Structures are given as structure tokens and as C-alpha cells.
TrEMBL record:
SUPFAM superfamilies: Homeodomain-like, Probable bacterial effector-binding domain. This is AraC family transcriptional regulator. SMART domains: AraC_E_bind, HTH_ARAC. Coiled coil: none annotated. The keyword DNA-binding applies. Residues 12-111 form the HTH araC/xylS-type domain. The keyword Transcription applies. Keywords: DNA-binding, Transcription, Transcription regulation.
Length: 313
């Protein structure tokens, strides 16, 4: 049996529901209801499209989200993180986390995650103790620890509510993503939706140092005018109006050089946020441009700036 675009659209709706409702009951029956399929058909379809059962997917996403909070939310207790990510008790969360990441939540928070990450972070006790970096930030030297991020290029902006059309890419956040950007750009351009006001927005749902590359998910989004009704197989969503901290690159970055972004994200999360008075609200955002200078039919997507939605602490 082949999987059609309509079936994928229903399953992708469930993925967004899971991400936004990790603290709730994500049983097979509840997820099947979101998908509009019967539990039996939903389970088979989800497994075929995602390569994981619904329960395995939910467990993995909960673990990865908890791992992220343990690193970037030092003021949240382990118990708070456990309940926020949908675990019924701290003891169950601790044993499940250790089985998944081979470290306890406490050890992970204190520096065990550095086995997966390329650099130390400000809020890690272990990295504070072990760092020999002379530029590491201190209370007296403010932001002097930045190595990749130029603070002069860090800006806070408020973006309005935006309706977008989007396609999802699964896999590494590298040059393979170009095909997805090309598909959605061609769709909008041939329908005369591209204007001077159009924004191209990338949404990376995963940290590739926590999530295996082949399981990473990325939304390629293009803003659309109010009232536009796409074909049923195309997905739309709305970005709520929000404040963002953006870091704009001096030169747009190719997806092939995405390793540079990881360093910049690291410094925004770990050096800028703890001292800024803000906390990160949800998933990051990337502002994209298409470079068609070399070949009209092979436009290369590049990242102009990266941003985090923020809220006062």
C-alpha cells in the first residue's frame, strides 16, 4: 500500500500535536483521534511513515525535550522537567532517562551531555570547573565569552502574526534540504504568491546533537497572504506574534556549512539567554534567502539569521 500526501498530512498534524502536548495523555487512542483514523489504521500508518511506532516516537521526543531542558533551563528542577515532558513521577523519569541516554538527569545536567556536544556551556557546573577558555564569561566581564556570535549583530525584534505554507523535511539539516525549499518555492512562485513582503522561514524541530540525524525534522515555510486557500495536500499554520532575539550573519550561511549555526545557537542559548532577562519560548526560527546567482533552476537556500522566540523570565 502506498502512502499518499493526504495521509502524510494527517500524520504530520499528529507530530505537531505531540510536540505541543508532551505533558498530556498521548495514548494511541488520543493520537488516533487527532489523526481522524481508527487506532488500528493510525498505528500502521504512523509506523510506515515515521519508521517508529507512536509509543516509541512519543517516548523519544519526551526524552529529547527533557534533555534539552536539563541543559538550557537551569532554574527548572528535574521534577518540573519530568512533569512538563509527560512523565508521571520523578523516579520513573530518572530510570527511563538513564536507560535512554546512559546517564542520570543529574549527571546529564552537570556535564555528561558534553560527550555529544562540541563545546562547554555556561550553565554546566562541570564545564565551569573544567574550562580553560580565557574568554569564558564572568559576572564582571559580561558577554566577553562569545567566540562566534558578534553581539553587535544580536537584535531583539517583534514579529507580527504570520500565516505560512510549509513542507516538512526529514533527515540531516544539510544540503539535502535544498530540494524541499525548491519544491515549496516553485509552488508559491507559480501561483504569484511571492512579493517583496514574503518571508522564508525555517523551523528546526530538533537539536542534531541530541536527535539522530535521520530522525530530525525541519519545516520549510513561506508566508502567504490572508485568504489564500492551498490545495488540500499542502499544509498551513500560523506563527503567533512574538518577540525574538535574532543573530544576523555577516554573510548568509549555506546549509552545507550548518555546523557554524550550531556554535551560534549554543552561544545564544548558553551565554546570551542566562544574562538577558528572557527565557526561550519554543522552537527556533531561521530566516532564509534563496541564492539564484549561479543557476535559475538550482537556487541555493542560505540562512540569513537565526532566532529564538523569547519571553521575560
Amino acid at each position: 500500500m502506498t502512502t499518499n500526501d493526504e495521509q502524510k498530512r494527517h500524520i504530520y498534524t499528529v507530530l505537531d500535536y505531540i510536540k505541543n502536548n508532551l505533558h498530556t495523555d498521548l495514548s494511541l487512542e488520543n493520537l488516533a483521534e487527532v489523526s481522524t483514523y481508527s487506532p488500528y489504521h493510525f498505528h500502521r500508518l504512523f509506523n510506515r511513515i515515521m519508521g517508529e511506532t507512536p509509543s516509541d516516537y512519543v517516548k523519544r521526543v519526551r526524552m529529547e525535550e527533557a534533555a534539552h531542558y536539563l541543559i538550557y533551563e537551569p532554574n527548572m528542577s528535574v521534577t518540573e522537567i519530568a512533569f512538563k515532558c509527560g512523565f508521571s513521577s520523578n523516579s520513573y523519569f530518572t530510570s527511563a532517562f538513564k536507560a535512554f541516554f546512559k546517564h542520570s538527569p543529574k549527571a546529564w545536567r552537570e556535564g555528561a551531555y558534553l560527550e555529544k556536544f562540541p563545546r562547554p556551556y555556561l550553565d554546566s557546573k562541570k564545564s565551569k570547573q573544567q574550562s580553560t577558555n580565557p574568554k569564558e564569561p564572568s559576572e564582571t566581564r559580561g558577554y566577553n565569552g562569545f567566540q562566534w556570535v558578534d553581539l553587535a549583530r544580536v537584535k531583539i525584534e517583534r514579529l507580527p502574526e504570520m500565516s505560512v505554507l510549509f513542507l516538512q523535511h526529514f533527515g540531516a539539516y544539510t544540503e539535502e534540504i535544498s530540494n524541499t525549499w525548491d519544491q515549496i518555492y516553485q509552488y508559491t512562485e507559480t501561483r504569484d504568491l511571492i512579493t517583496d513582503e514574503t518571508r522564508m522561514i525555517g523551523v528546526p524541530h530538533n537539536n542534531p546533537y541530541i536527535t539522530p540525524e535521520n530522525l530530525c525534522r525541519y519545516d520549510c515555510c513561506i508566508t502567504i497572504p490572508q485568504g489564500f486557500q492551498p490545495e488540500p495536500h499542502m499544509k498551513t499554520k500560523v506563527f503567533a506574534a512574538s518577540k525574538y532575539v535574532f543573530y544576523e550573519f555577516e554573510e548568509a550561511v549555506s546549509f552545507a556549512d550548518r555546523g557554524l549555526l550550531i556554535e551560534c545557537y549554543s552561544e545564544l542559548y548558553s551565554y546570551w539567554l542566562p544574562k538577558s532577562g528572557y527565557k526561550c519560548l519554543s522552537t527556533p526560527m531561521e530566516i532564509i534567502e534563496l541564492d539564484s546567482s549561479s543557476d535559475r533552476f538550482k537556487m541555493e537556500p542560505k540562512i540569513v539569521k537565526i532566532g529564538l522566540p523569547i519571553l521575560p523570565k
